[in-house]
Amino acid sequence: MKRNKLVQITIFALLILFAGTSIAQDKVIDQIVAIVGGNIVLKSDIEKMYMDQLAQGVSSDGDMKCEILENFLIDKLLVAEAELDTLINVTDSQVNQQMDGQLQAYVAHFGSERAVENFFKKPIADIRAEMRLVVRDQLMSSQMRNKIIQDVTATPSEVRQHYRTLPEDEVPVIPTQYEYAQITLRPEIILEEENRVKAELRELKNKIEGGSSFAAMAVMYSEGPSANVGGEIGYLGRAQLDQEYAAAAFNLKGDRISNVVKSEFGYHIIQLVDRRGDKVNTRHILMTPKVSPEAREQAQERLDSLATLIRKEKITFQEAAGRFSSDKNTRNNGGLVINPNNLTSKFAAEELDGNVSKVLSGLNIGEISDPFVMTDPDSRQQVFAVVKLIDKIETHKANLQNDYQQLSDLFLQKKREQELEEWIDKRQQETYIRIDDTYANCNFEFDNWRK
Q: 231: how many CB neighbours lie within 10 A of its CB?
């Protein structure tokens, strides 16, 4: 059985972004080491990826450079096919959004933009310029991969049959899962702080209307993740935007700038970039009012008092969530948290906010925690929370009665891997492929790279 190619290729596609912008430790005399259709793989591509994986602590039991080359070959096959498919289209907006997300991941990893620039030994603008073509190919490859597997399904009878024929040592182990409810409180922000932020945004609006560049102002002042790209967030529909933000954005005409808009993320001024059907591309400047230490202490004390009342059965957890929780996603269902990855109430530890996972691991079923700080997944702002452990399912071998959804997902993943492998085998035979003799001893997983 070949390795999990769907997961492997997805991870590789992300690593390509690093490789495409990394600086090789020594200048490599470039040469073409492989040709796939009309696409080439350079020796520098292999060396940059190799150095990057070493820097990230990635190891391999085999020849890492051979594995890197094979992943490049697969990626080039997908890109070559995507370029022939008129239904696959990658827009500049998609490329910009992907680059923005990747740059934010760099900043999160290294701690600051300056640290990113120091690592790559070049300014952010140059990193973006070098990423553009790499990101475009990654998006083309991703769309092609999704198209290949989009019609693959798994029926309940197939899932049951597959499970019943699995050897005992191949039955998957389900890690410990938690089911929990929560009540969150956002510390109150004083009116003076909100007024300060709104005044700053109004001042920026006046400067922009007086001739200053909105994009430049966003780079300098916005606190949102899109600041590095001038505040532009790409084409999004109403349902993909905060309700208040969407109302303002869809009412804009020309290059007019909105008044100050309050959303769950903070305060914005918004400019319309373009409208396409039922989607708008906007840029914005986001500022978030700062919470005072006193407000944080008050929120913690209030939540601690509420938890005490629940423990004394003066009010139920469900009632308290409905009346007091600031989390709009859970307060109407008694605080029960739903996993967005599988739409069930079960979470593996790695799917949870780190603080939530740590607190839940120390609770007994039915127990309520003390207040602690967690990151709200929607606004990305810190809030105080108490959680109640509803159920804990210990690590166990999967069974159809309790773990059908996980078994179904795993079987569907396997069918998709097989579909992708069959596609690769077929395209290898139909595509011109040449690999340099320096890689003649590579033990590739797919047999038909050499003809």
A: 27
Query: What are the CA-CA distances from residue 87 to residues 95, 132, 286, 420 (Å)?
Result: 17, 21, 35, 19
Q: Tell me the pLDDT tens digit for each residue of 65-107.
A: 999 999 999 999 999 899 888 888 888 878 887 777 777 667 6
Examine domains 177-188+292-396 and 191-287 and report if their fold is the same.
yes
Enter the pTM of the model. Answer: 0.60
**In one letter, which amino acid is 327?**
D
Give pLDDT, residue 131. 78
**Measuring CA to CA, how many Å separate 242 from each of 28, 50, 133, 292, 379?**
48, 41, 31, 25, 10
**CATH architecture assigned to 177-188+292-396:** Roll (3.10)
Q: How far apart are CA 424 and CA 2, in angstroms?
A: 12
- Specify the fold of 5-153+410-439: Triger factor/SurA peptide-binding fold (1.10.4030)
User: If DSSP states are collapsed to H, E and C, what string results for the chain?
Assistant: CCCCHHHHHHHHHHHHHHHHHCCCCCCCCCCEEEEECCEEEEHHHHHHHHHHHHHCCCCCCCCHHHHHHHHHHHHHHHHHHHHHCCCCCCCHHHHHHHHHHHHHHHHHHHCCHHHHHHHHCCCHHHHHHHHHHHHHHHHHHHHHHHHHHCCCCCCHHHHHHHHHCCCHHHCCEECCEEEEEEEEECCCCCHHHHHHHHHHHHHHHHHHHCCCCHHHHHHHHCCCCCHHHCCEEEEECHHHCCHHHHHHHHHCCCCCECCCEEECCEEEEEEEEEEECCEEEEEEEEECCCCCHHHHHHHHHHHHHHHHHHHCCCCCHHHHHHHHCCCCCCHHHCCECCCCCCCCCCEEHHHCCHHHHHHHHCCCCCCECCCEEEECCCCCCEEEEEEEEEEEECCEECCHHHHHHHHHHHHHHHHHHHHHHHHHHHHHHHCCEEECHHHCCCCCCCCCCCC
Looking at residue 10, its pLDDT comes to 46
Tell me how crowded residue 345 is: count the other CB atoms within 10 A of its CB: 17
Percent of the chain clearing pLDDT 70 (strictly above): 90
- What backbone torsions phi and psi does residue 339 show, to the nearest 5 degrees? -75, 115
